[in-house]
Specification:
Length: 348
């Protein structure tokens, strides 16, 4: 029998950042990840994906990102960085392990969200969630419908529009008022990072007022704004309301005759393997800054708006990991119960 003080479920950026602070404090721990290789959560995204934050802000605690500060790394560079990070600090990551059930554990599966009528689409229509999209060659010839005007939807729509008629359905949640790139990033991302880390938090009145509202909808468009969509020839339409005759139908009753549908409709968290009364009526964990008061030794890292707007992305995850590890040390001894952290990955 292998006896450990801490199990970290998930070997993405949140899990590795947590491992860094655990290694600093000493004690035995193990990081479990379902992928076969550290960084695979990034390697399996679509081929042309680049990060939206410049390399200066993509580093985890203790190791800078090996790229010029104001460039935007590719998904492969991010994956390789995570793998190198685990190796540099000797983090005990055990890959190829999926956690199905634990009595005292935590974790969030990111489950692709699609509308309930998606199964009514004609079988001849190729439909993919954005988590399964890699490149245009996966699709049939003919028009494509992209559903969801977040950053993934906008970037995939522009890519598809280079070779086929592409329709983007939905309403955006806003967009950056400046052009995304190395020059503006030098100033703008400092401001964005400060606001996301120190202003919109659960500890400030403005953060409590607007934080949940902001995280309940798609992120503002960053790299691909409305003018870029128009320049690429992407057709903008309203929301998809239902399916009729095997084809998607808009709220204005227009039927879209398309050969492909890509659902860029986000994810939801699911905790089917935690047998503990630590969730609210919506299935969200009850916690304070990631720590579960009713279960000493149980905590979360990498949740959306865990403490700050940036909690689930690279610029903020290291702070939350440090807080959780530090305060677990100060918590009452869980008396031989298995403490466990969760980490969820949020590649973009």
């Amino acid at each position: 029998m292998e006896r450990l003080e801490t199990i970290v479920v998930g070997g993405g950026q949140a899990g590795l950042a947590t491992g860094y602070w655990l290694a600093k404090r000493g004690g035995s721990f193990l990081i479990l990840d379902a992928s076969e290789r550290v960084g695979d959560a990034w390697r399996t995204r679509w081929d042309s994906l680049r990060l939206f934050t410049p390399a200066r802000y993509d580093a985890l605690p203790g190791m800078r990102f090996p790229a010029p500060n104001w460039t935007f790394p590719t998904k492969a560079e991010m994956a390789d960085y995570l793998e190198a990070y685990a190796a540099r600090f000797g983090l005990p990551v055990r890959t190829g392990v999926r956690v199905n059930r634990m009595i005292v554990a935590s974790g969030a599966h990111r489950i692709p969200r699609t509308p309930p009528f998606a199964f009514e689409l004609d079988p001849d229509v190729v439909q993919l969630h954005s988590s399964d999209y890699r490149r245009p060659a996966q699709l049939r010839d003919g028009p494509a419908l992209v559903v969801g005007v977040g950053n993934s939807g906008a970037e995939i729509a522009v890519e598809l529009a280079r070779e086929r008629h592409t329709i983007l359905a939905g309403t955006e949640s806003g967009h950056l008022p400046f052009r995304h790139g190395p020059t503006t990033a030098r100033t703008a991302f400092r401001v964005v990072r400060f606001v996301g880390t120190h202003v919109i938090t659960r500890s400030t009145p403005i953060g409590r007022a607007i934080g949940r509202k902001m995280t309940s909808r798609a992120d503002p468009l960053i790299r691909t704004r409305p003018k870029e969509l128009a320049a690429a020839g992407v057709e903008r339409v309203g929301r998809v309301a239902c399916v009729r005759g095997g084809m998607p139908v808009l709220e204005d009753d227009r039927v879209l005759e398309v050969s492909n549908v890509i659902w860029c409709t986000g994810y939801h968290h699911h905790f089917p393997w935690i047998d503990l009364p630590v969730f609210d009526e919506h299935g969200a964990p009850r916690h304070r800054r990631g720590l579960v008061a009713s279960e000493p030794g149980l905590a979360f890292v990498g949740l959306v708006f865990q403490q700050r707007l940036s909690s689930d992305v690279l610029p903020g995850v290291g702070r939350d990991a440090r807080y959780v590890v530090h305060h677990l040390d100060a918590a009452p001894d869980p008396a031989d119960r298995l403490g466990a952290w969760t980490s969820t990955t949020s590649p973009t």
